[in-house]
Amino acid sequence: MQALYETKNAGLEDALLESLSPDEPWSLVERFTTLVRESSSEDERTAFDYVAGRLSALGVPYEMHMPEQFLSVPIKASLVAGSNTYRAKTPGFSISTPAGGASGEAVIIEGFAAGRSVDFFDFSPTTEVDVKGKIVVVDGFGGPPPVWYFQNKGAKGAVFINPGVDIHWGICTTIWGAPDLDNYHRQPTIPVLSINRPDGDVLLAQLAAGLTNVTLHTELKEGWFECPCLVAEIKGSVEPERFVLAHGHMDSWDIGIGDNAVGDATLLELARIFHNRRDSMARSLRVAWWSGHSTGRYGASTWYADAFGLDLARNCVAQMNIDSPGCRWATEYRDVTVMAEVEDFAARSVLDSTGKGFTGERPHQAGDYSFNNIGISSLFMLLSSMPQAKIDELGFYGVGGCGANIAWHTENDRLEIADKDNLMRDLRVYATSLQRLLNNPLHPYDFRALTAEFKDTLDRYSAAAGSDADFTPAYDALADLDSALGDLQGRASDLANGQVGDAGVRAYNDALLALARELVPINFTRKGRFRNEPAVRVPELPDLAPALDIADADGHMRRVTRTHLLRGVNRVAWTFETSANIVRAALEKI
Predict the structure, then answer these.
(1) What is the Cα gyration radius of the chain?
(2) How far apart, in whole angstroms, are the C-alpha atoms of residue 562 and residue 557?
(3) With pLDDT > 90 as the criterion, what percentage of the chain qualifies?
(4) Which of 206, 211, 221, 283 sits at a 20 to 30 Å CA gap from 425?
(5) 3-state secondary structure 280-307
């Protein structure tokens, strides 16, 4: 398979890489240092108009959409404990308190102090605490999973103690994009705020000394707002209907240079260089800048997935998310977001364009990955990161962007967080990957890497379930799929020397896209196509993941879980069977 990952257009790729320049992207970065790009704000519209103006000047065609999005924008917050009033931030989708605040008995949630960080995507407390009618005080970030958990336990409010001296902005809803009838009820119903570590230590000391009640003050702007969504399209000349979607968010917390002005700049430079070489492109490139990433919980990307869902399902070759590239000290490609079938391709693109190594990780339910339910193979989210040794030297804790700089989601995410040299190096990775996706005859997907992952997942779940579930139908269907994929890969070497548009090449690629439409949803969704998952961690083959918990269930819940797993095995096995049939139908055409 390695030959499929290499460029088949060395001259074009060299020309694209040589044409990369810091002039256009760095001008955008510097311009954005004066803009607080909060969604629905004047500054956000100014930023979109700036990019649209540059696209016009460069001759790149684009559309400016104005979708209506449901936003929750923090305005102010504070925490009163005894005689102390603490500076605070409230996350998007917390509720606003009455004028007098929300008061209640505070209860400390133990068990998280060692890491100083509640997981961004999951939450599994080690001990049960009665929080009904109380205000919980928790170490870490106040993301969707813990807020959803404590709200359902009857908490009256939540205070999160962030790990450092700065307070990080965030959001606390599990709803992905605009709410619909399936999920509107999941909107948070309690006030939430965050304070910094030094103030948190004082608060914990007050509570240990006998203070019982605290008062939360939160204010947010919430409702439906029209916000821009900018999409440029550079048409290919052989298969113009097929496209790769490269995208990132325009909105920011404060001026947000590392998250995500550098990504916006990267997208603009990619649009420039590929437009200048448009006559050499076989497939089309769409470049999108989203609003509502934060205060709309991926609002515009979800709207685009909804409004253009059928086109995406029919024609999108891949989606590439671009968030926080080119940041200070970010010199490694470590734990980069990538789906299994495209990981080797991503690693080869990084190696060829930078000479550096690469490790990937399963995509989180985050970062404008709003297309999993459609079934689109995906690569990247965050890209380069600072070495772990540098993180340890600086005493940094884990964050979700800015190349691991803890300025992420704070007022400190300013020009010094961007690094021009690192940005240009990351641009080489994106340009190389896109050139190959757009112009190589065969799509560079190895679904046998995914079937190997599925086998490992089934082994884990089967061992945990024991006699409570029979995974045999899934195992059998998976083995059949893997065998069929082996036959398909046997045809790849000859086809790789063909041309985009050849009948055999098209049949091979059509099969890969059809496989993605089946296998990505089964690995990342429970809700089905064109429906959004909650913004919490989605485990591998999620229909079968309850197998990990069945040993701890008894009585009624054990039987409920058995029923769930039986249905899950049916869904998974049928998807594997369908995928094997897709492959065999393609083999007859090649």
Answers:
(1) 24
(2) 9
(3) 92
(4) 283
(5) HCCEEEEEEEECCCCCCCCHHHHHHHHH
* Cα distance between residue 119 and residue 141, in whole Å: 8
Distances 256 to 38, 408, 412 between C-alpha atoms, Å: 10, 8, 8
Does an H or E element contain 433, and which? helix 420-439
- pLDDT value at 115 more than 60: no
pTM over 0.90: yes
554: phi then psi, degrees, rounded to nearest 5: -140, 165
Q: How far apart are CA 131 and CA 137, in angstroms?
A: 10
CA distance 115 to 334: 21
| pLDDT one-digit tens code per residue, 327-358 | 999 999 999 999 999 999 999 999 999 999 99
The number of C-alpha atoms within 13 Å of 82 and in the hemisphere containing its C-beta is 12
> One-letter amino acid identity for 306?
D
- Kindly report, residue by residue over 545-567, the tens digit of the pLDDT: 999 999 999 899 999 999 999 99
59 torsion bin: left (phi>0), alpha (psi -120 to 50), beta (else):
left
Count of residues making up the chain: 590
Q: What is the mean pLDDT of the chain?
A: 95
557 φ, ψ to 5°? -70, -30
420-439 helix and 23-32 helix, angle to the nearest 10 degrees: 120
Quick one: which of 450, 419, 537, 420 has its CA closest to 124? 537
Q: What is the pLDDT of residues 255-297, one digit of tens each?
A: 999 999 999 999 999 999 999 999 999 999 999 999 999 999 9
57: tokens are 């000047």
Q: Using alpha carbons, list the distances in angstroms from residue 264 to 252, 270, 422, 582.
A: 11, 10, 15, 38
> What are 394-448's pLDDT values in tens digits?
999 999 999 999 999 999 999 999 999 999 999 999 999 999 999 999 999 999 9
Enumerate domains of the chain plus CATH numbers: 2-67+227-439 (3.40.630.10), 71-224 (3.50.30.30), 447-589 (1.20.930)
pLDDT of residue 118: 46
Helix then strand then coil, in percent of the chain rounded to 5, is 45, 15, 40
Q: Which residues contact 86 (CB under 8 A, 6 or more apart)?
A: 78, 79, 80, 195, 199, 202, 203
